[in-house]
Design goal:
The protein is α/β, with parallel strands linked by helices and about 350 residues long. It is about 50% helix and about 15% strand. It is built from 13 helices and 13 strands. The strands form 3 sheets. The protein has an 8-stranded parallel beta barrel with strand order 1-2-3-4-5-8-12-13, surrounded by 10 helices. A 3-stranded mixed beta sheet has the order 7-6-9, with no helix packed on it. Helix 3 (about 45-60) crosses helix 13 (about 310-335). It is globular. The two termini are about 20 Å apart.
């Protein structure tokens, strides 16, 4: 018995040592699809965010996707972000994918592929169907030649987040009758669909919501009928949900009580995301929740310690808040705890 436990420990250590560079999502998604869970795709912009996310995942042995937007590259620099993610892999030993979120051109995707990313998204969902296919296919061909996987998008999410700015009127649900042709003609590896999620912290207007007995806004339910029809047409194919932050109200309250102004910020109910993760959704994007956890914690810290000025003093609790938030997401929403190895 003791010999077997030592052998299992040795095998686990060998597996951990194997991860020194970012991986693709191919094996992650196969396991997630068959296991009825999703991988968290968390947006990163600086060291503390990377550390908070990856420390949580390490404790829970969860696979990860760390994703970088065009705006994050402009803010933090491509090289810094790549090296931060590589450092996180070395520190945690986890399988981590480095992904470009919402790439808006072939040139941007190419730059990320050439610069060490293992997954890219090309988002041309705002273009006509055939134009979306043409540019997506171009990215897919270049990416596959370099061992990189590609996420594409059909349907258009509303909301504002970094470079993405789509009005509610311009948003559209994914048309299930288009997905087979799109995947076949582009060769993409995963598909982001629009079923009612939305970017940013203000995902819905008050007019789109109802109010519960506490007077809190309740958003409209996700279109699971669209998801289920897409899944039937693309059996075994990984589906992605963008705009899936839940906008935790404790952090909204923390912001508002400490000098902020975020009235009627509301997100996607976590129970709906958990349901989606049990179906064909293998990747769920989370960004605004991280920003809220960090900003709310920092605002509160400054209110309680107006004499402090050392960034380490207020970034330490902010990083801890992100870590606890991510642990909750991994366990209670995504269901990917203890799925890394």
């Amino acid at each position: 018995m003791i010999h077997r436990e030592r052998e299992q420990k040795f095998v686990r250590e060998m597996i951990v040592m194997a991860y020194t560079k970012p991986v693709t999502t191919t094996e992650m998604f196969k396991k997630a699809y068959n296991g009825g869970y999703a991988i968290g795709a968390f947006n990163v912009n600086n060291m503390e965010i990377v550390q908070g996310i990856t420390e949580a995942a390490k404790e829970l042995e969860a696979p990860l996707i760390l994703q970088v937007s065009k705006g994050a590259r402009a803010y933090a620099n491509h090289t810094y972000l790549v090296k931060l993610v590589e450092a996180a892999i070395i520190e945690t030993g986890l399988p981590i994918t480095l992904h470009l979120d919402h790439g808006d051109s072939f040139e941007l995707c190419k730059s990320c592929i050439d610069g060490g990313f293992t997954s890219v998204m090309i988002d041309k969902s705002g273009l006509p169907f055939d134009e979306n296919i043409k540019i997506t296919k171009q990215v897919v061909e270049y990416a596959h030649d370099h061992g990189v996987v590609v996420e594409a998008e059909l349907g258009t999410l509303s909301g504002i987040e970094d470079e993405v700015n789509v009005s509610a009127e311009a948003a559209s649900y994914t048309r299930p009758e288009e997905v087979e042709e799109f995947v076949q003609r582009t060769g993409c590896d995963s598909l982001a669909i629009a079923i009612g999620t939305s970017h940013g912290a203000y995902k819905f207007t008050a007019a789109q919501c109802t109010r519960n007995e506490k007077g809190e806004l309740v958003p409209p339910p996700l279109r699971f009928d669209v998801l289920e029809e897409v899944s039937k047409r693309l059996p075994g194919f990984p589906i992605v949900l963008h705009g899936s932050s839940s906008v935790p109200q404790q952090f909204v309250k923390m912001v508002n009580e400490n000098g902020g102004k975020m009235p009627d910020a509301v997100g996607i109910p976590e129970e709906q995301l958990r349901k989606a993760a049990k179906l064909a959704v293998c990747k769920i994007n989370i960004d605004s929740d991280l920003r809220l956890a960090m900003t709310g914690t920092i605002r509160k810290y400054f209110a309680e310690h107006p004499d402090h000025f050392d960034p380490r003093q207020y970034l330490t609790p902010a990083r801890a808040a992100i870590k606890e938030l991510v642990k909750h997401k991994i366990t209670d929403v995504l269901g990917c705890d203890h799925k890394a190895f």
